[in-house]
Write a structure and sequence with these properties.
alpha/beta; two-stranded parallel sheet; globular; 2 domains; ten-stranded mixed sheet; 15 helices; about 325 residues
Length: about 325
């Protein structure tokens, strides 16, 4: 695998364009941290003989591929947010993934329109509470608006992508009027100004500043194995079974798409299919306490720690389409003020 993380842009393109377009290579552009991907990519090469040329791009992945045009060496894109992967589709830089394995493994609501992208792993956004001060074990997202939580609710900024996706899902399910009312109720219940990170809400539960909060599940996993003060934050919280009323749990995803001008399309499909295999799902999901999309993987680290989640049936493509409107509502109610 080429280490491209420190190459300047022109040199990077030169390296990839000079890489022979062989049947036994595939070029991956990703915003995912290399340390999380490398075990899976190395296993793929070992098992298939296909070399992966991986390019890590913290920002500007779509812009890079568009600038490279028809000669782009990109075969596969892998990103960590439904809005980002949907934006790649809207930018016209993807193509449908035709695969019986994808059809079998990935539920329809966890794929893009016309199968232009597919989910690889899921992270759920759930409610955590104080172990000492809250006794219930389950909750709906709608219950967070209950006035009984006034002055007890903590959340990071409403415009953060994690919350933007959650509010967009709420909007897709309930419409603008109900979502605006919901945001006002959540704001009224906050114990402090929305902000900080997901792990900070666990810290604030420990300190007694709040009793209840929203958090992404993989942060719970990371805190559970921390060797510093964060282990104490984890010990202070209790994850609740969290769903929409009459629905499932809100999830965001890491997702893959095949580039429109992929020079190694067959190997691109092969890589995506491999990442959906039980072996790869265990390696990939456990690296960051995410939930496998392959339901045959029963004992992932996230499931062992938190139990299985049933994703809400709202198509993630609909969630992505509502993100701008959700952001506008957050601003309208002054959620982050």
């Amino acid at each position: 695998m080429i280490d491209t993380t420190r190459l300047p842009a022109l040199a990077l393109i030169s390296v990839l364009l000079s890489t022979p377009v062989l049947a036994q290579s595939v070029n991956l552009y990703t915003t995912r941290e290399p340390g999380l991907l490398n075990p899976v990519l190395e296993a793929f090469t070992k098992d298939t003989g296909v070399k992966v040329n991986a390019v890590f791009l913290k920002d500007g992945l779509q812009e890079r591929i568009k600038a490279e045009g028809a000669n782009s060496p990109a075969d596969v894109m892998l990103v960590v947010d439904v809005g980002e992967i949907n934006a790649a589709v809207d930018a016209g830089i993807t193509q449908p993934i035709k695969s019986a394995i994808v059809d079998k493994v990935v539920p329809t609501q966890l794929r893009g329109a016309d199968d232009n992208w597919v989910t690889l792993t899921k992270r759920a956004r759930i409610v955590v509470v104080s172990k000492e001060r809250v006794s219930q074990d389950a909750i709906t997202y709608e219950d967070l608006a209950d006035p009984k939580w006034k002055g007890k609710f903590c959340i990071r900024a409403g415009q953060h992508p994690y919350n933007n996706a959650f509010f967009a899902a709420y909007l897709a399910r309930n419409g603008a009027e109900k979502t605006e009312s919901y945001l006002k109720a959540l704001k009224a219940n906050t114990a402090r100004k929305p902000g900080g990170g997901d792990r900070d809400v666990a810290r604030d539960i420990l300190s007694g500043q709040c009793d209840i909060a929203l958090i992404n599940t993989y942060y719970i996993g990371l805190m559970s194995v921390a060797k510093n003060e964060q282990k104490g934050w984890y010990d202070a919280i209790k994850p609740l079974k969290t769903t929409f009323a009459g629905g499932g749990t809100h999830v965001n995803v890491s997702a893959a798409a095949i580039a429109k001008n992929a020079p190694n399309k067959d190997n691109a499909v092969k890589l995506v299919e491999y990442m959906l295999s039980e072996k790869a799902q265990a390696l990939y999901a456990d690296g960051n306490f995410e939930f496998p999309v392959n339901q045959d993987v029963k004992d992932s680290a996230a499931v062992k720690l938190l139990g299985a989640v049933t994703p809400d049936t709202t198509p993630l493509g609909d969630v992505a389409k509502n993100r701008k409107a959700a952001a506008d509502l957050v601003d309208k109610v002054g959620f982050d003020n």
